[in-house]
């Protein structure tokens, strides 16, 4: 299966945390956390449509300025999600700059902020052209675990304890559409952007009898199929991809329960491992996980793959020890299940 999401840590595990999630078949990406993102190429930053911020400690949020700066004057909308207090945090950043020239830009740049609370969200919109003055009072909506959703995937979130609220995230594809090459060959179809439209039509639950037009070759006339007939010949549906991201959490029963539930069965879990287990006391004091605890949580959630990050600089040159400690706890826990 060619995965739809291609997640990668933005930085070295000793540098600012953050997960960049480009979409394989679209010029688009999501991002979990906005720490230092200077390592990302501007063309990659410009793919970001939705940014999910776990909490606003500087190492998770300083990249907001770069994302905004690159987005100014472009035909783009940005949606950002964060923990309680997030609207104030972003408004504070926006208030730190002068915006007297932005009404000349060709594109308005819409900014949509969502602040998550245990049972509701607050949403507020802003426009660069209006000097980022809020367009309305915050709009309250009930929240039951899903922070953002579109036909192909959803992003779930939980509030975890890091002495302050810190969000854990999980992106789950509704189902995965595998394109069968032989099917394309049999129908003499060439892969192209129409395949993305075809997948969107499947996610949109269009009537199988509905017509679907394929224009796979500019030189040749378009061909018409029923969506169901085409799906039968060129697509195989498998379970959707799931990626989870956990950072900046204290090891507690309440956090563990929420993390395991959120990350359960993930194809890939990215989880912080700030300290070695020999420094467990320090981890408690700083409200972070040890590598052993991270591995244990990954094993309990039966994830298929685990990557650890957010290593304390005290272990510079010892990354392997943190990885091995997490790996051993993961394997041990997997064997017990
Ligand atoms: Zn941090
Ligand atoms: Zn933090």
Q: What can be said about this structure in brief?
A:
28% of the residues lie in helices and 28% in strands. By secondary structure, the protein is an alpha/beta fold. The longest helix has 18 residues, at 319-336.
Report what the structure shows.
The chain has helices spanning 42-45, 58-61, 64-71, 86-94, 181-186, 194-203, 227-234, 253-263, 280-286, 291-300, 319-336; strands at residues 8-9, 19-22, 29-32, 48-52, 77-82, 110-116, 120-127, 139-142, 146-150, 153-161, 165-173, 175-179, 211-214, 223-226, 235-239, 242-246, 268-272, 306-309. Helix 10 runs parallel beside helix 11 (319-336). With 337 residues, the chain is α/β, with parallel strands linked by helices. It starts with 7 loop residues before the first strand and ends with a helix. The strands form four sheets. Strands 1-2-3-4-5-6-7-8 form an eight-stranded mixed β-sheet, with helices on one face. Strands 9-10-11-16-17-18 form a six-stranded mixed β-sheet. A two-stranded antiparallel ribbon has the order 12-15. Strand 5 (77-82), helix 4 and strand 6 form a beta-alpha-beta unit. Bound molecules: zinc ion (ZN) (2 copies).
Estimated helix fraction: 25-40%
Estimate the strand proportion.
Answer: 25-35%
The general outline is: globular
Strand order of the largest sheet: 1-2-3-4-5-6-7-8
Secondary-structure topology with pairs:
Elements: E1 8-9, E2 19-22, E3 29-32, H1 42-45, E4 48-52, H2 58-61, H3 64-71, E5 77-82, H4 86-94, E6 110-116, E7 120-127, E8 139-142, E9 146-150, E10 153-161, E11 165-173, E12 175-179, H5 181-186, H6 194-203, E13 211-214, E14 223-226, H7 227-234, E15 235-239, E16 242-246, H8 253-263, E17 268-272, H9 280-286, H10 291-300, E18 306-309, H11 319-336
Parallel strand pairs: 3-4, 4-5, 5-6, 16-17, 17-18
Antiparallel strand pairs: 1-2, 2-3, 6-7, 7-8, 9-10, 10-11, 11-16, 12-15, 13-14
The protein binds zinc ion (2 copies).
One zinc ion (ZN) binds next to α2.
